[in-house]
Amino acid sequence: MRIVGLMSGTSADGVDAAVVDINKNKVKLLAFDTFEYSPQLRKNILDIAEQKTCRAADISRLNFAIGEVFADAVIKLCRKNKINLKTIDLIGSHGQTIYHNPKGKIRSTLQIGEPSVIAYKTGKTCVADFRPKDMAAGGQGAPLVPFADYWLFKHKRKNRAVQNIGGIANVTYLPAGTGLKKTIAFDTGPGNMIIDRIATIFSKGKLHYDKDGKIAAKGKVNKKLLDEMMRHPFLRKLPPKSTGREEFGAAYTGKFIKRSISFEDMLATATAFTADSIVDAYKKFLPSMPDEIILCGGGAKNKTLVKMLRQNIKSKILLTDDFGINSDAKEAVSFAILAYAAIKGIANNVPGATGAKKSLVLGKVIPAQ
């Protein structure tokens, strides 16, 4: 099957779109690109995600607007890479998370980007909205990508950790030579979310992230502030666990922005927080340190962050690129795999990662016709 995977993370930069061919367990990436949101659309998403504007009308309009962007991403990606849209069999869309609370009195999650719009505009069946069914079964609805990580990176002799560093950072631990039931996965804490927010505020909107970690590289880590950040209660919670803007968004970052330290030092400290929280999670919650760590997500390109990880851990650090999958494309590829499993009736959640009571087929299917 030829499938397009669509993903937009908590950073809300835009839509990652990947075309993959899947033949049984073999996955081949054919094309990938990121289609940025307009500045106004990104602002609308972040305002709603930070609960600044929460009117039903705003959410409803945004749901359809994002659906249009997702559909256009499929069409543009195929056109750009001279892939005939008629050869696409299926689309898998994660959508855009605007709220995720797996621990509330009423546990809930909400991803928008109307799949009916995607299915209609592309003429292709769309599988979307993967999280709710896992939550209905007592799970956290996250992380979802461990199923794909197992398909792509399991090894008979090596313990591997697949570390995604998007807005939030999450790890999938794949014990050597074991089945999917032994897979462990959870959110380790912040990824790029705090770094991006600091870059945006200090640059007065001129920057949305610290490219290659160059600004952080010029700064010095503020040990006192880092120690305070490392006392965040989420870091002590036992897996399964997931987090988002509710814990590490603008409100959290705002408490540290006011400190009288330089832009460079603030970014260096935020970058160290991401690196240290990842290493701390491995030491606390993994059965053993991995032989190899495979990085993906935007943070994999932050040279300062990767350097900090190398300084704090002895495991061999690789990129998904070393396995033929663009590190930026990894999550979009994952949702193509999740959609493939859903349409084939294969259980695609990992109860050991989400805490769900049983294995389930996740995803709502919107037929094209």
Would you mind describing this structure in some detail?
- It is globular, with a radius of gyration of 19 Å.
- With 369 residues, the chain is α/β, with parallel strands linked by helices.
- It has two domains: 2-140 and 329-347 and 358-366, Nucleotidyltransferase, domain 5 (2-Layer Sandwich), CATH 3.30.420.40; 146-323, ATPase, nucleotide binding domain (Nucleotidyltransferase, domain 5, 2-Layer Sandwich).
- Strand 7 and strand 8 form a beta hairpin.
- The chain has helices at 39-49, 56-80, 115-122, 131-136, 146-153, 193-202, 214-218, 223-229, 245-248, 250-257, 263-285, 303-312, 330-344, 351-354, and strands spanning 2-8, 14-23, 26-36, 90-101, 108-112, 126-128, 160-165, 168-174, 184-190, 292-296, 316-319, 364-366.
- The chain contains 14 helices and twelve strands.
- The protein starts with a strand and ends with a strand.
Question: Nutshell version of this structure?
Answer:
The chain has 369 residues and is an alpha/beta fold. 39% of the residues lie in helices and 22% in strands.
Shape: globular
Helical fraction equals 25-40%
- Span between termini: 18 Å
CATH architecture title of the largest domain:
2-Layer Sandwich
DSSP E strands, number? 12
Task: Tell me the structural class.
Answer: alpha/beta
CATH superfamily of the largest domain: ATPase, nucleotide binding domain
CATH first level of the largest domain: which class?
Answer: Alpha Beta
Largest sheet: 7 strands, mixed
Tally of alpha and pi helices = 14
Rg, Å, rounded: 19 Å
Which residues form runs of ≥5 with pLDDT under 50? Answer: none
The percent range for strand residues is 15-25%
